[in-house]
Every structure is written in C-alpha cells, then in structure tokens.
Amino acid sequence: MHSQSYFEAILQLRPFDEKIMQFILNRVEERKKNIFISKIVNLKTGVDIYLSDNSFTLGLGKKLKKVFKGKLILSRKLHTRDRQTSKDLYRVTVCFRLERNED
Going residue by residue through the chain (103 aa), what tens digit of pLDDT does each one get? Predict the structure, then answer.
C-alpha cells in the first residue's frame, strides 16, 4: 500500500475550477495502477494536488493545456539522490493557470 505522505509531483491548479478538477480525477482513476493522490490542499488562490508520479503529472499538465485554455509553468526541485544509481531525484511542480475570459 502507499503512504499518505509520499509524493513525487505537485499539480497546482490556479484558480480552482470544478470541471478541470473532475478532468484530473478522471485521468488518475483511469490509470489506477501505481498512480495515486497523496493529498489535496485547498488554498485561497486555487488547489495543490500531490501525485505519486512525475512523468504522469507532466503529461497531465500537457493534456490540461491542450483541453483547457491556460498557461503551464514547470519547475523541479532536487529532492534526494538515489543510493544505488547515484542519480539525482527531483520533485516536479506543474502549475496550470486557467485563462479567464473577460466578457
């Protein structure tokens, strides 16, 4: 089983949008194996979704940009170094900023 505190990536949704949130939850549900949401943090500016897979989160960000109008901001932070392979391991942050339609 997975730990509730384990995560590799954060998907930031700015501002919160119910349709986009449902889109994200559906994608995670489709990929049941090895992909899970550790926690969801509601903020004044939007929501942070902590996910268990870097590459899945990056792909999800690209899908969000394709399906919904918005801007994608990617960043990564050195988390640790793998003891066996000596590779640097990063935590990825994918920020999706939804474009607001000015009427």
Answer: 455 678 999 999 999 999 999 999 999 998 877 789 999 999 999 999 999 999 999 999 999 999 998 999 999 888 888 889 888 888 899 999 998 765 4
**C-alpha count within 13 angstroms, C-beta hemisphere, residue 41:** 10
The token pair at 95 is 């920020």
Q: Which residue type does 3 have?
A: S
Distance CA 102, CA 89 (A): 41
Alpha-carbon span 92 to 57, nearest angstrom: 8
Residue closest to 92 by CA, chosen among 41, 65, 40, 52: 52
Maximum pairwise Cα distance, the chain:
56
Beta carbons of 45 and 61 less than 8 angstroms apart = no
CA-to-CA distance for 36 and 82, rounded, in angstroms?
Answer: 22
